[in-house]
Please model this.
Amino acid sequence: MSFFPGNDPNPRDIAAIDAIELMAVPNSKDIGGFEVRRALPSARRRMVGPFIFFDRMGPAVLRDGVAMDVRPHPHIGLSTVTYLFDGQIRHRDSLGTEMVIVPGDVNLMTAGRGIVHSERTPEEMRASAMGMHGLQTWLALPERLEETDPAFAHTTAADLPELEGEGAHARVVMGSFYGATSPVRQYHDTLYVDLRLEAGAAVTIPADAEERALYTLEGEITVSGDTFPPDRLLVLRPGDVIDVRSAGGARFMLFGGASMGSRRYIWWNFVSSSRERIEQAKEEWKTGRFDIVPGDEEEFIPLPEA
Model:
């Protein structure tokens, strides 16, 4: 699941303008001092490439003795991608994985036919205040891989390629950008890039990916003469090379990839091309047929009533 529950984006979308096919303002929800913003899925846009879920958590500060505790919960039919800007999270899963993710690293957890995991503040970090800020996205799997064996892979920030030039900086989280290719595994053509612009700088977004979107994080960006503040989802027109500028400096994510080519259903933490498979997963979790998480066996999140 996402770090915390959040509402779907509201329908305050504007008509397409020039290079922008759709602009959406994510709904936000405050949960215990955390602000969570959900950009995908929305009523107007369900997916961008394989991305079917896009959550921004924070930025926030965990006070002394306050922790993030997302209890064990299941997934099917997707890969989760966790990418932090600040803070630390201990991941445990039913494969026996235990990994602390720190800013700039990538956790790729592939659920396939089914996995259970938890996300918690590391025990050794709970005695002092800690910042928390990051993104969690879900990538739908191709139909032929929806029932693949579950897997987990961790990639350190040092292993992600970075590009620099004329006031622009890019870290390639997944896929390829200007000839630099991330080592993070792809199950479907995927693009995910962390971009920063200094004041007055610009970057050209090539039209290589079939579907592309931007999510603004810090500062303002200008696209085709229109300026956008932080926390805006901008779905770009396919096939167009697009220039992104920033007068005062900005940070944003570029993401997308090839269209999945078939419909995906999403319910709670389950994604599938089959409604029947989701119903099966619901029954399996309700009746305790998923695996447990070693080291985190005492708690779990029950199946929602609705």
Observations:
- DSSP finds one helix and 26 strands in the chain.
- The CA atoms of residues 89 and 121 lie 5 Å apart.
- Confidence is low (pLDDT under 50) at residues 1-6, 11-16.
